[in-house]
């Protein structure tokens, strides 16, 4: 009997041991529902990168990685349930791909000591590491995005926007309202006239908004949309013959999904880009060899090379690099969420690292610090070529206006700290 | 003429057009409710499923390809054909009829004489099932709908109004087309229900199930018929809305636009769905134009429901709905 019990215990231990050793990267994905078309490529890119690391490199620092996927349906309540269900699995970092879920998770991850990375979304003022110890939003946030768009317009207008009319068409949600304050501040600085036009969820019907744009004839339209709102807005803009090169979406309004339904009408539409686009990067040869050909691609394997797949890949690469940094700092391959947080705070992405990962020039070089969890605030502009059905990057990295944004980040984060009795760090 | 008046006229015209699109969705609800007393929660998903099937058939996509590939390790995607729009539409109608038969056989047949709430719950289940089935069959990516519908500004109206008023009105050619289709649909449905044998049977069932059964009308046949017609209406709605945004899973949410139309027009009246749609369309657009800028915009969704609720206060059965009198 004792022998049987000992065998059973040993078997259990052996079965459990590899799971404990894995580096767990939860993926709060949405492969179903109205936003699935955006959620699937991101989740595929995220999963495929870790599969590549396992198959090609034997994991990170000799420890295999494990992606636990949990379906949120882009629903905030389900997102929180997913967090609660997976946090006990040794989850190292959460990337929920939803501003709504992010807001709910900020107090939870801080209490649980698990880092949260919201790349280009979430709570913008979380860039202030003095207040938000466990939240990171490098390499750029919404306010950077608004400023990058305005800086691009300054570039193409000889540095002068005075007297120009800019309209912001935005998703009527916390996400969509994020850039308004920044655009107002920049309006005061650069002398353009700002009009804000809200679109209710889901954005299937936008006739009123585009009639207003047709009447008021702004020089430029900026868009903060997601899901069906993007496709309808681009179609309506084409319908009223708004010059597409004067229509710029945020990086969440710039995937193939957003422009393809409008066909040739979308030609010339621009969007911000957090990273490079297309599959002309060396990493894709490795993905083909170690992931696709091995039959281990996530999902249907049909999203490779798309903008949102690239974003998932980039998010995973940044997480993996932070994990490497954590292993380096703490001298152990088996890192905990607390160590992962340290790795994220000490993360440095250089051109050499990008090249070594098969992604040369894919994103900006940057360094995270205790004070700055938001990165450099750099982004590019891409433009849709409808005949070739591809996005082309048309600018170099554009720096956001930190003199305006840092002040806004400080104001908002310090107000949050005061409300929640948070003691400032990094002193 | 003052600019604001011209703008208001343009907004009103566009509101009427948007109302037609809302009415197209509402029509499907009305048809099923009228014939069987079921509030079909799955109507929006049926529009999505029909549009997905249309694009899938037209593009020669292999149904369940992802599932087949995952199980058998194959790499199947397309049959290699591209059907003309009309052939794809006819085949899709066939699929919707098949769906109606299956709904009757698998769901409704077993729920005869159940409370309306049970039937309503069954349609909720059907909605989730159909959404999942559509995903499995055709995938979740956004598909471009290309059935040759006209789209973009109507030059004729733009030029004519510019010559009259000095300001060219924007009317989308797709909206004009949708209006014509909706008018033909209503005329067709009216002629069918008034003058065909099946149509009269359908009206008999709508009036009194028991009496209709007693004169030999098959309830099952009528249910298949009405779900088939609702499937056809869903296909039309799916095409019109899908042409605007591409065919994607948020199409199922267009049902939300139909609810205030139904509350206003009544659940049992085809003209009610049309008039309700027009009132909601014009009301929400004019409100957004006149009041929206003062309250931060994005008023359309909630205003439609407020308008419907106001009507409910005075006419609980809706504008054209049948007054419910129950003996106690």
From TrEMBL, chain A:
SUPFAM superfamilies (UniProt xref): Periplasmic binding protein-like I
Superkingdom of origin organism: Bacteria
Keyword Signal part of the UniProt annotation: yes
Domain called Leucine-binding protein: residue spans: 28-385
Family matches, as Gene3D superfamilies: 3.40.50.2300
Keywords: Signal
Signal peptide positions (record): 1-21
Stated family: Belongs to the leucine-binding protein family.
Protein name: Leucine-binding protein domain-containing protein
The organism's taxonomic lineage, starting at the top: Bacteria, Pseudomonadati, Pseudomonadota, Alphaproteobacteria, Rhodobacterales
Automatic annotation (TrEMBL), chain B:
CDD domains linked: TM_PBP1_LivH_like
BP terms from Gene Ontology: amino acid transport
Record membrane topology: Multi-pass membrane protein
Transmembrane segments: 12-33, 45-68, 80-103, 110-130, 176-196, 217-241, 261-282, 294-314
GO molecular function, one term: transmembrane transporter activity
This protein's record includes keyword Cell membrane: yes
Subcellular location(s) per record: Cell membrane
Top-level lineage group: Bacteria
Entry keyword Transmembrane: yes
A GO CC annotation given for this chain: plasma membrane
PANTHER family per the UniProt record, alphabetical: ABC TRANSPORTER PERMEASE PROTEIN, BRANCHED-CHAIN AMINO ACID TRANSPORT SYSTEM PERMEASE PROTEIN LIVH
Family: Belongs to the binding-protein-dependent transport system permease family. LivHM subfamily.
Record protein name field: High-affinity branched-chain amino acid transport system permease protein LivH
Species this protein is from: Pseudoruegeria aquimaris
